[in-house]
Specification:
The protein is α/β, with parallel strands linked by helices. β1 (52-60), α2 and β2 form a beta-alpha-beta unit. The chain is elongated. It has helices at 2-31, 67-82, 99-106, 124-134, 153-162, 184-200, 202-205, 235-242, 267-283, 289-312, 321-344, 346-349, 355-386, 391-414, 422-425; strands at residues 52-60, 86-92, 113-117, 137-142, 167-171, 178-179, 216-219, 248-252, 254-255. The chain binds guanosine-5'-diphosphate-alpha-D-mannose (GDD) and manganese (II) ion. Manganese (II) ion (MN) is lined by residues 144, 146, 148, 258, 263.
């Protein structure tokens, strides 16, 4: 591509001199000018009317030996499927090997190719988001420039989105996927990172088989208006955690070995990954159901204590302790139920409205919590008498275990999603 273009320009020079060459450059510049750099917060704006179906962002840093090969194979792959309705946005961080220049040279003859050259901001994740901000597509995607991501997987991703997925991920860990020649250590590190993610952010990492993937597509509508704040390399995690992903599709791909250039992964990126996980954990806590369930449970303790005081304290009504406790506990179960039905599981409760189903959920909640109390007493006894644990430690463990029991059963039996919305809520946190 390049040789043809420069030789064309050279021929122009020979015939008509530099003046005409300048006009030629000016004209092609306005036809396909480098994109304006988005600035400000990392938010993908909504588009009133998308210009193209698909925008693929290709972040580059020192990929001069790869980028044109990749662009050519993407064009050859996508033109038969999408016609002119796609764009390939290269986002280069002012690479010392002048990757941006290679792309700039082909802009005039390749209207589907766009270029963002960044000279102040740096880093893979922000490069990708800046590219999406400049994108004019209804579907936005990302893939590496170094030919490690085989271009064909884009078709699988596209068809997942067309089937209705909000996000489609190219995965090494599903049928048709794999890694070519990875050492044991590299495999271990990759899987270890995934395990760590699963511990810290189960509701996010558990939804994707290859959370480390840097090759995916999503509906713009699933992420527009959301402020992103990524750290390090793993932008997919950011997108799943903060975006509105009801349906996630996957397609297998084999991660190829790098032939040209070198990887930019360093050990500092592992630390950044951990910090990224923790930040997302913190930011998404309020939307975690288990967290909400625990907050409601905590409020129940106050209700229980308050009622117990009002009824049984010698300064107040001075009723019998057992009678008072039963009323206190049942009142707390009622307030917990109302809060869980409106907040913790509010979206699920909405799927089966009406007083009858609410009453059914209330009775179910009562039953599960009553069994929970019995379990709590039993567990406390076992841990204290047979495990010889300190009684308060034993009680804390019993309370934590019963909370999980209450949560799990209520989530599965009592607030199970209705049939019609099973797809939409199956993966929700
Ligand atoms: N603009 C920009 N700025 N691009 C960058 C930067 C940067 O700071 N750092 C890397 N890139 C580009 C590279 O040029 C390449 O196109 C792509 O981002 C991936 O970088 P590599 O350095 O090749 O990463 P990798 O091969 O080790 O990691 C790949 O595999 C991981 C899965 O294990 C990437 O696809 C990751 O995204 C993926 O998570
Ligand atoms: Mn790579």
């Amino acid at each position: 591509m390049t040789s043809k273009d420069t030789s064309g320009a050279r021929a122009l020079d020979a015939q008509h001199g530099p003046a005409l060459r300048a006009v030629h450059a000016e004209l092609t510049h306005t036809l396909n000018a480098p994109l304006a750099l988005p600035t400000g917060p990392l938010v993908v704006p909504p588009l009133e009317k998308p210009d193209v179906r698909l925008s693929i962002v290709i972040p580059t840093f020192n990929e001069a030996g790869n980028v044109l090969t990749l662009l050519a194979s993407l064009e050859a792959l996508l033109e038969p499927v999408l016609g002119a309705s796609f764009e390939l946005i290269v986002v280069d961080d002012d690479s010392p090997d002048r990757t941006w220049e290679r792309v700039e040279e082909i802009l005039p003859t390749h209207p589907r190719v766009k270029l963002l050259r960044r000279q102040t901001e740096k880093g893979l994740s922000t490069a990708v988001i800046r590219g999406w901000q400049a994108a004019r597509g209804e579907i936005i995607g990302v893939m590496d420039a170094d030919l490690q991501h085989p271009v064909e997987a884009n078709l699988g991703l596209l068809s997942e989105i067309e089937r209705g997925a909000d996000l489609a991920v190219a995965s090494r860990h599903v049928a048709g996927g794999g890694v070519s020649d990875w050492s044991m250590l590299r495999r271990l590190l990759s899987r270890g990172a995934q395990m760590l993610g699963l511990l810290i952010l189960p509701g996010v990492i558990g939804r994707i088989s290859d959370p480390m993937s840097g090759y995916f597509m999503l509906r713009r509508s699933a992420i527009e208006g959301v402020e992103l704040s990524p750290l390090g390399y793993k932008i997919l995690i950011e997108v799943v955690a903060r975006g509105r992903m009801r349906w996630i599709g996957e397609t297998g791909y084999v991660f190829r070995e790098r032939i040209e250039g070198e990887s930019k992964v360093t050990s500092a990126l592992y630390i950044q990954y951990l910090r990224h996980l923790l930040r997302l954990r913190w930011d998404t806590l309020p939307s975690s159901r288990l967290f909400r369930f625990c907050v409601v449970g905590g409020s129940g303790v106050f209700v229980d204590m308050g009622i117990l005081y009002l009824l049984s304290d010698p300064h107040t009504l001075a009723w019998g302790l057992t009678r008072s406790k039963i009323i206190a506990a049942e009142t707390a179960i009622c307030t917990n139920f109302l809060l869980n039905d409106a907040w913790t599981f509010g979206d699920l409760a909405e799927t089966s409205p009406g007083a009858t189903s609410k009453l059914r959920r209330f009775l179910g909640f009562n039953a599960i919590c009553t069994v929970g109390v019995a379990l709590n007493v039993a567990l406390l006894n076992v841990l204290y008498n047979f495990g010889h644990l300190n009684r308060y430690l034993a009680n804390a463990i019993a309370i934590a275990a019963v909370t999980l029991w209450n949560y799990g059963l209520n989530r599965r039996l009592n607030w199970a999603p209705g049939k019609t919305t099973a797809k939409a809520t199956a993966g929700s946190r």
